[in-house]
Structure formats: C-alpha cells, structure tokens
C-alpha cells in the first residue's frame, strides 16, 4: 500500500527541509567566519570612548 501525499505531510516536509537548509547554511557561514574575531579592525582594549563627541547640543567639540 502506497502512502498518499496529503497537504499536511507536504507542508511538514517543506518546513523540515527548510529548517535543515537554514541550519546547514548557518553552519557553513559559521565555519567560514571561524577565528575571524582576532582580525577585527577595532582593538577594544585601547578604545577610548571619551574622544567621541556627542551628536548635538551645547558643548560639542569637533572630532579630531
């Protein structure tokens, strides 16, 4: 006896296949960016936020 493809089964297969595809893409993306944090452009240990001027208002100073 052959199983019929009901609408519920088709949607379930579509959702499960979609989730598996997203997990596979996320794993591939994570593998590509592995150890990328060491090559970031901003060194947060030497970052001084006091040199950033406020967006607007009295007492603003121009950026260096």
Secondary structure layout plus pairing:
Layout: H1 7-32
Explain how this protein is built.
The protein has 64 residues and is mainly alpha-helical. 41% of the residues lie in helices and 0% in strands. The chain is built from 1 helix and no strands. The longest helix has 26 residues, at 7-32.
Record keyword descriptors for this entry:
64 residues; mainly alpha; elongated
- Quote the beta fraction: under 5%
Order of helices and strands: H
Alpha-carbon Rg, integer: 26 Å
Estimate the mean pLDDT confidence: 79
Unreliable stretches: none
Q: What's the N-to-C terminus distance?
A: 78 Å
Number of helices: 1
Tell me the structural class: mainly alpha
Query: What's the shape?
Result: elongated
**Percent helix among the residues?**
40-55%
Largest sheet: none
Strand tally is 0
């Amino acid at each position: 006896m052959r199983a019929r493809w009901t609408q519920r089964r088709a949607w379930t297969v579509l959702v499960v296949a979609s989730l598996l595809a997203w997990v596979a893409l996320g794993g591939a993306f994570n593998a590509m960016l592995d150890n990328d944090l060491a090559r970031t452009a901003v060194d947060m240990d030497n970052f001084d936020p006091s040199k950033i001027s406020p967006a607007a208002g009295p007492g603003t100073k121009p950026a260096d």
